[in-house]
Predict the 3D structure of the following.
Amino acid sequence: EAQVTQNPRYLITVTGKKLTVTCSQNMNHEYMSWYRQDPGLGLRQIYYSMNVEVTDKGDVPEGYKVSRKEKRNFPLILESPSPNQTSLYFCASSLTGQISNQPQHFGDGTRLSIL
Amino acid sequence: AQSVTQPDIHITVSEGASLELRCNYSYGATPYLFWYVQSPGQGLQLLLKYFSGDTLVQGIKGFEAEFKRSQSSFNLRKPSVHWSDAAEYFCAVGPYNFNKFYFGSGTKLNVKP
């Protein structure tokens, strides 16, 4: 089954403790992206990757890092989490980095609470 | 600056009634427009997209949307709403190469029996 898998689904942690949210897709997609969803703000793009070893900042990259060492994985790293990073995070992937008939596939989300 | 506005935060309609969700965008280049639906606890599912051509776009689940360049709008419609359509709906705009993808703040749809 084609899917985007995020782990963990839920995490409560404390300020300053490094954490990684993993994202994996099994569709051989080139393009992957991370979003955060906050009430009243919709989804905002954090980082995206057009292909392996190619990443770029989205609209709200501050406080986040990503890497794309292999095609299927696109982890989101919070080196020193702060309470303002408490949010619902979504990973998405698409066949290519160009508009096509292939839609973005979204994971089920990761709810992070930073105390 | 690029932006997407969904002016209605919440909408309640009766089952069987028609629905229109509004979306306005501000984008410097040719827009590529999308509507997504998010059911509670789920990720986003693409309903439909507009790239070019016919300005009336058909999507899944009986939804359609009309692109009006003169009004910078891409409103989502459904002629008869079902209880299972209760969800949050997001309009989005993006460029050809998918970078800087922008979402609206969403519209929550409630469906009355």
Observations:
- The longest strand of chain A covers residues 42-51.
- The mean pLDDT of chain A is 92.
